[in-house]
Amino acid sequence: MTPFYSRTELLLGSEGIDRLRASHVLVVGLGGVGGYAAEQLCRAGVGRLTIVDGDTVGETNLNRQLIALRSTVGRPKAELFKQRFADINPDCRVEALTEFLRDDRMVEVLENGRFHCVVDCIDTLSPKVFLLYHAHRLRLPTVSCMGSGGKTDPSQVRSCDIAQSHTCPLAAMVRKRLHRLGVSGGIRVVFSPEKIPPRAMVEDPSDNHLTTVGTISYMPPLFGCHIAAETIRLLLSDQPTQSSNE
Questions:
Q1: What local confidence, expressed as pLDDT, does residue 1 receive?
Q2: DSSP codes, the chain
Q3: Residues of the chain falling short of pLDDT 70
Q4: Which domains, from first to last, does the chain contain?
Q5: pLDDT by residue (tens digit) across 90-143?
Q6: Contacts for 5 with CB less than 8 Å, ≥ 6 apart
């Protein structure tokens, strides 16, 4: 075993390392939460990552996003993370899709990817629900991030089945739409019941959002670490060693 894996192996054992190295995870959305989640999976030793984001780094990302630097503004997030991960763990095979997954293309990726877990860090409602619905339909273990914006209290971040989530406005909208599609549970979520102060939200009909919510530097990374922890727990659990849609 190379030095890269030595500390993790002390914690998880060789069997745990082998399971992570044999795993393929899809991460959709590489913003403040998704970027941190994907990097923790890479550093933990996940053997294959498919990372997806059609966006480029913007100046408003600088307060919270891992890949956001003055030198990276305007560059594609997915490609930047692929380069970064190669510099962290060359054993991790990374496929970067610089696109916004929607409709038939999203279904195509889910059905053909042979994933062991799906990580949803999409911040727009319709494609988020679409991804969760089809991942559930395909019986792919899934971890989804609810709203990290407008939150400042790290102690309130928690994980549960989506059916047990509460207070978070995004979680409420996702539950409602999934329920209409016949899905009431079976999806792990990371959320915070902390209430969003009205001053933290402004109307913004552009950029596929109805509102823009304020963020602080440490909360999206914290959500991302929780997402990675839930994903690793799923990968190390008694899930089948091959993906559910092979």
A1: 74
A2: --HHHHHHHHHHHHHHHHHHHT-EEEEE--STTHHHHHHHHHHHT-SEEEEE---B--GGGTTT-TT--GGGTTSBHHHHHHHHHHHH-TTSEEEEE-S---HHHHHHHHHHS--SEEEE---SHHHHHHHHHHHHHTT--EEEE---TT---GGG-EEEEGGG--S-HHHHHHHHHHHHTT--S--EEEE--PPPPGGGEEE--STT-SEEE---TTHHHHHHHHHHHHHHHHHHTT--SS-TT-
A3: 204-210, 238-246
A4: 3-236 (3.40.50.720)
A5: 999 999 999 999 999 999 999 999 999 999 999 999 999 999 999 999 999 999
A6: 17, 45
Count Cα neighbours of 15 within 13 Å in the Cβ-side half-sphere.
4
Q: What is the pTM of this model?
A: 0.94
